[in-house]
Amino acid sequence: MDALILSLQASRRLHSVGWGAPSIEPAILNSLQQSLQAVKEHSRFEGHSAPVMGASFSPDGRMVASASWDGTVKLWNIEGKELRTLRGHTAEVWNAVFSPDGKTVASVSSDHTIKLWSVEGQELHTLKGHTAEVWEVAFSPNGKYVASAGSDGVIKLWSLEGRELQTFQGHKGWIWGLSFSPDGQTLASGSADSTIKLWSLDGKELQTFTGHQDTVTEVIFSPDGHKIASSSNDGTIKVWTLDGQELRTLLGTHAQIWDIHFSPDSKILAAVSSDSTVRLWKPDEQEDAKILKTTAQISRLNFSPDGQYLLMGGWDHTIKLWTVKDREQNLQIFQAHDAQVTDVNFSPDGQTIATTSWDRTIKLWNRKGQQINILKQGTDKKSYAVWSISFSPDKHTLATVFWDGSILLWNSNGQQLLTIPGHVRLKTSFSPNGQTIISTGQDNTFKLWSRDGQELQTFVGHEAPVTSVKFSSDGQLIVSASADSSIKLWRIDGKLLKTFKGHQDEVTSVSFSPNNRLIASASADKTIRLWSLNGQ
Question: Among 203, 412, 415, 435, whose Cα sits 20 to 30 Å from the Cα of 505?
Fold first, then answer.
C-alpha cells in the first residue's frame, strides 16, 4: 500500500513540470514506471476506472482516501476493501486528504473546485474561486482552515463552511508544495518558478527563498516553525532558516527513511528507505553510504546481537538476512508470511528470529529459515494484525502489539502470559533489565509498564503520535520520537530532560548508540541526524 502512495506522489510531481516536458529526466520516468509496476503486482486497491493521482491515510491509519482521474474519491479500509465512493467533481480529482480529526475529507480537482466531505460520504461544501486546476490542499493544524493551490498560481484560504478568507498572489508558476506552520499562523508554498514563499494568513508575503533550479515539489516546516525543508525536481533537498539561509543535511535523496539502527559496536548506522534500498554509514567517517538494493520495499530492519547480520522484513512477505561484511550478498530469504512483514527482531543470543505481519500471525525462526513456532492469538478474541514484537533480555518472554492497541506477553513456547489493554499502541520494547516495558501510542504519549501489567508512568509532552521509543543501555534514559517532528530525552521517572528540534517532518525512528553517547534519528523529511545527548 505504501508503494501505491509513493508512486502516486511521484506521478503527481511529474505533472508539476508538465507531461512530456523536456525537463523531465528519463531516470525519473523509469523510476515512476518501476513503481507503478510494483503497485500492479500488489493489486491491493482496485476500483477506480482511471489513473489514481493522490492517496492519503486517515490520522489513525485505518482508512485511505484515493483521488482519481475518473472524477471520484474513494475511501478504503486498511485491508483494501472499498468503503464508499464520493461523487460530485466534474473533472479529474488530483488529491484527497483527511482533516486532523479524521472526520472530514478535502478533495481538489481540475473542475477548479475543492470539495469537503464527511467520511460517511456526504458532500458538505464546494469551495469555488480558483480559475484553473486545483492540485494541492492542506488542513490547518487546528482543523479550522483549508488552504488550496494549483495551476492558476495562487493560494486560497477557506473556512470549513466554504467561505473564501484570503487569496495569496506572488508566484510566477504553478504551485505544488503547500504547508502550514505548526502553529497554523504561516503558510509555505513551493512553485514551478523554483521559489519558496512564506505568507502570513492575512495574505502578506513574508519571505522568498531562491536556490532551487527546478520546480519545488514539497515544502514543510520544522516543528518549532523556525526552519523550512524543500525538495525539488532538480534532485536536491534543502533546509533553510526563515531568512533564507541554506543548512546542511545528512542525506539528499527523494526516498523517505522508514527505520534506522546502530550496529552493536556503534560503528555502522543502517537506514531503510522507501526506494527499496538500505544504506550503511560509518558515523565517524565522511565516506558515502554503502547501498544495498532490494527487490521490494523494506519495512523494518535489525542487526543481530553480534553485528554480523542485518535482518529485514519486506512488503514482498519475505524476511532477508544479509551479512554486514559482504554487503552485496543476500545470505538467506525466508518465505515468511502471507502479507507485509511489520517487524523483525533477533533474540538476545542471536539464534532466534521473531516476525510479525498484517496476516495476523507471529512466527519464530532459526537462522537457517526454518520455522520453529507460530504464536496463535486464540479463538476467544477477535484476531488482529500484529504491529511489532520484542524479546526480553533473557529471551524467554516476547511482547507483541496488535492492531487493537493491546500488548500481549508470551513465553518462548507460545503460551500467552498476560494482556495489557487500554492504550492505543503501535510499538513496544523491554527495558535492559527486562523488568519494565514501554509502549508507544497514537494518543501522543508513551507508557511504562511492569511485567505484571501495572502502569508505572505516562510520558506526556509530544504534540502528535509517538512513533518510536528506546531505552539507553543502562536503562536510566528513554528517547522518544514523534510525528510532531521532535525527539525528546527523558528520565525513567517521567522527567523531560531535553527536546531535540531540527527535523522538518515526522520522525519515524530513533535509537541510542550502544555506548549511549549518540542518538540517531530518521525522518519523513528524508534525512538522518546524529545528536549528542546535549542536543548538538
Answer: 203
**Contact in structure between 426 and 387 (CB atoms under 8 Å):** yes
Distances, alpha carbon 263 to alpha carbons 223, 281, 505, 517, in Å: 29, 10, 25, 14
> How many domains does one find in the chain?
1
Residues in the chain: 536
The single-letter DSSP state of residue 358 is T
358 phi, psi to nearest 5 deg: -70, -10
Name 322's bridge partners. 310, 330
Cell of 323: 551479512
- The CB density around residue 49, as the number of other CB atoms within 10 Å, is 9
Q: Model confidence over 26-77: pLDDT tens digits?
A: 333 333 333 333 323 233 456 777 776 777 777 876 788 888 888 999 898 7
Helix H or strand E segment including 459: strand 455-460
Placement of cell 467533481 in the chain: 89
Domain that holds residue 10: 1-44
User: Is 11 part of any domain?
Assistant: yes
Instruction: Assess contact for 311 and 321: CB atoms under 8 A.
Output: yes
* CA–centroid distance for 56 within its chain: 11
Per-residue model confidence as pLDDT tens digits over 330-371: 456 666 777 777 777 788 888 888 888 878 888 888 877 788
Whether 265 is covered by a domain: the verdict is no
- What are the beta bridge partners of residue 179? 188
In a domain, 205, yes or no: no
**Assigned C-alpha cell, 116:** 469537503
